[in-house]
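[job 0412] stage=fold_complex status=start
inputs:
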Amino acid sequence: GAVVSQHPSWVICKSGTSVKIECRSLDFQATTMFWYRQFPKQSLMLMATSNEGSKATYEQGVEKDKFLINHASLTLSTLTVTSAHPEDSSFYICSAGDRDNEQFFGPGTRLTVL
Amino acid sequence: AQSVAQPEDQVNVAEGNPLTVKCTYSVSGNPYLFWYVQYPNRGLQFLLKYITGDNLVKGSYGFEAEFNKSQTSFHLKKPSALVSDSALYFCAVRDRDTGGFKTIFGAGTRLFVKA
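[job 0412] stage=fold_complex status=done
writing structure:
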C-alpha cells in the first residue's frame, strides 16, 4: 500500500524556537495533505488541509500564523510550529490523499517543548 | 456537519471472547466509514472501510464491521479477541457528497484484552 513518512519522529525543543515537521508521500502523488494533532488519550483533531500549490485551509481555532503549512510539491508538505511553547507539545500526524480519494496516514511526530 | 461518537472510553474483554467496539455517526450526505487502530506512540493503522455495497465489511487482523444505515452505526467486531488486539481504536467518517477528503475522528475507544 501507499506509504507516508514523517520526519522527525520525535523532537524536543526549547520554548520560543520554531520546529519544522516534514510529511512525504513516498510512492504516490498527494493532491491533498492533512495535519492533525493528538493530545494524550484524546482523538485526532484536524488542524488544516493543504492542496499542492495553494494556501492551506485551517480549522476553526487553529492559528495560521502559529502553524505554518507549506505544500510545495505533490509529495511533500511541511508544518512549522513557530515560537513553540509547552502547550504546543503534542503528537502531530499528517495524512496524504491520492487521486483515487484514498487517505494514508504518517507515523506521527512527537513534539515536546521545554 | 459530520460527527462520530464512540460511546465507550474503554472496552474490556477476555482473550478468546468476541469483541465489539461501538461507533455511531452523523453526516448530511452519504458516508465513507473507517476504522483505525493506534498503538502507543505510533500513527494510525488502517483496519477497514465502508464505501458502498455489502454492509458487512471485512478488514485486517480478523476484524469486521457492519454498516447499519437505519441506526447510523458502524460497530467494529472480532469473533475471538487476542491480547495483541489491545490498543486504541478510532472510528472515522467522511461525507462523500460534501466533505471531500475531510475525515472526522471519534474520541477513540481503548480495547483491553485480558489473557
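[job 0412] summary: The two ends of chain B are 41 Å apart (CA to CA).
[job 0412] exit 0
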